[in-house]
Amino acid sequence: MLKQQAVLHDSFGRRHDYIRISVTDKCNLRCVYCMPEEGLPFFPDERVLSCAEIIQMVKNFARMGIKKVRLTGGEPLMRSDIIEIIKGISAITEIDDISMTTNGLALPKMAKRLYQAGLNRLNISLDTFDKKRYKEITRGGNLDRLLKGIDTASQLPFKKIKINTVIINGQNDHEIADFLKYTFDHDVNLRFIEFMPIQQDERWKKQYRGLDAIFNACQTNHWIYEPIRLDGNGPSENYKIGGAKGSFGLIHPISCNFCESCNRLRITADGYIKSCLYWDDEENIRAAIFDFDSFREKIQHALAIKPKNHEMALLNQEQVKNKKPTWRHMSQIGG
Ligand code: SAM
Ligand code: SF4
């Protein structure tokens, strides 16, 4: 049993009990909102945290009061030792929730082993119900395989599955009613996510669409929805349409900034801590993983400099003085 330390707070009093670990920057897709079309040079293997380092890092965090861990990427299921990583984390008794964000393509083969290794929840990305469009948005993905992955995972006793849907103006926003209908007969929490300007060029302004479109679709279809509370749901606001098995959520960091309730720290695959998704502040913590006191110092420093908020809503990023947005693409952070 690890000795429990006080819970982590930043300088604005926000409590931190949640870490997101990107276990790889590699991915088998190149989604339009995440990676450039030509791809990115992936980190060489030796630059990426090993399984032993990830497990020791989570033990350190558990000593500092962290209870929830999300594994992300790149695509976390591209790591050949992902089962070993999950087993190692699941053996840490202070961690009470292990989740993963995945593009779902490997779930038909891997869902059962993930569950057996101790994974508690899955967030699966699904941006369209149209095969051709899925291939375009993901630059190569196979929708049938993804839907089979969701189906396979749904038959296992994971906690409620979440579906992540990034709304892209002109590409999938006309499917909003179809996504809402999907919640009628699927017991999932479908989260509409605003397209965030992380390493995006000017085209982003045209591709961004605010999430008021979701409520408009409910009204047009005369669907009555009510707010609901879901456990451990972080920044999303959740609703259920009358009679639906599932629910829907809105994650709108741009139109409705939720930084005041941010409870997360992010660790990149190459061992940097990022206290905010947006800004370029980051510090390498890899060398400190096996030295708890210096590890704790680095985490406390990251929290001390955690900014109050991001500035994604500033369409002209040059307006932001003295601070630079991150150099990383989303696949190099983890979402
Ligand atoms: N490969 C996994 C996946 O796609 O689910 C995990 C990594 S991905 C970076 C994590 C989440 O970030 C996904 O749900 C993805 O849709 C979302 N994401 C990526 N780029 C984004 C952007 N620019 N704006 C909003 N969400 C984004
Ligand atoms: Fe890969 Fe996920 Fe990024 Fe798509 S969103 S390119 S699946 S890391």
TrEMBL record:
Catalytic activity line of the entry: GTP + AH2 + S-adenosyl-L-methionine = (8S)-3',8-cyclo-7,8-dihydroguanosine 5'-triphosphate + 5'-deoxyadenosine + L-methionine + A + H(+)
Cited CDD domains: Radical_SAM, Twitch_MoaA
Domain of life where this protein originates: Bacteria
Residues that, per the record, bind GTP: 20, 70, 101, 162, 264-266
Requisite cofactors: [4Fe-4S] cluster
Binding site for [4Fe-4S] cluster 1: 27, 31, 34
Uppermost EC category: lyase
Its EC number(s): 4.1.99.22
Binding-site residues for [4Fe-4S] cluster 2, renumbered to this chain: 259, 262, 276
Keyword Hydrolase listed: no
Biological process (GO), any one: Mo-molybdopterin cofactor biosynthetic process
Gene3D superfamilies: Aldolase class I (3.20.20.70)
Keywords: 4Fe-4S, GTP-binding, Iron, Iron-sulfur, Lyase, Metal-binding, Molybdenum cofactor biosynthesis, Nucleotide-binding, S-adenosyl-L-methionine
Molecular function in Gene Ontology: 4 iron, 4 sulfur cluster binding; cyclic pyranopterin monophosphate synthase activity; GTP 3',8'-cyclase activity; GTP binding; metal ion binding; S-adenosyl-L-methionine binding
Entry keyword Ubl conjugation: no
Subunit structure: Monomer and homodimer.
Family according to the record: Belongs to the radical SAM superfamily. MoaA family.
Name of the protein in its database record: GTP 3',8-cyclase
UniProt organism field: Tetragenococcus halophilus (Pediococcus halophilus)
